[in-house]
Amino acid sequence: MADVKPTKARRQNLTVRRDADLDADLAVLTRTGMSTSEAVRYAVAFLAHGYRDLWASGRYPEGVAPQRIGMRTDLHDRPHAADLRVVRPAAQGTTASTPRPGAVGAA
To answer: Domain residues of the chain, as ranges?
Structure first.
């Protein structure tokens, strides 16, 4: 008979009562592509990180929850829209230094 490795004790699942507010918050987080389970783990880890940072820095006594927590982030570096302007060759008899009559900037 092959050696059987002992199995690790499995942690008990967490049960949370759901309401309309929790479902709405989960819907926001899952719009990023994460599962409901991943969203809950991420949210708990995010808040716990904030608490640990406040307590470790001494800004709040350990075990005391702040009344408000903020989040700062850089602006999303989204690509700029493509430049769709049409470049037309200059009309005959005009140059870049001689604007056509009626053109913007013409005298």
So the answer is: 35-66
